[in-house]
Task: structure prediction
Amino acid sequence: MMIFRKRFLLRKPHQLLQAVFYGVTCLDDVLKRVTRKKDVKFITAFRDLLFTTLAFPISTFVFLSFWALYLYDRELVYPKILDGIFPGWLNHAMHTSIWPLSLVELFLRPHHYLSKMKGLTLLAVSSLAYIGRVLWIYSETGTWVYPVFAKLSPVGLAVFFSLSYILTASIYLLGEKLNHLKWGHSDADSGTQVPQEENPTHKSYQAQKGAKVPPG
Result:
């Protein structure tokens, strides 16, 4: 039973990430009220960086991958014996609530996205760091963070991690698209959100679309 408790406690990175993100978000809101400014530049930029490149993609990936594997065979990610060790609400706090909370954040507040190259690079670096941690933990303890890893060969692990990054990168791009649809164009240089009706490019397009072609 100790091995399952130990394995469960090793699953901390995304919980820590969520805690840091919401802590920074709270600090951002408090400082805005205290300083009476629309943006506290560094804190707001750091909040957006955490959310766009880490919190939203990773929380969505964890939700989708965990519950897909759980429904297929729960022993691969959350063995039944854990039900007698940890309450069900804790499992949902770790693997379920993180996704709807991220969606609420996405639709309640505009976020500045970096260029695709920078955003996906940061996401790749964080993914490699997580993979390195998983492998280091296994080398030190002989325990995989999730039982599914024990079922895979080295090639299988490489394929699994590669597909996981592709899915996470796709979620990142989806988040950027949803942010754009909800809040308008994001100026990559200034970090400001430009609503569709105020976007010069959009206006120019609408003007051209509505322009009449003179008779030949």
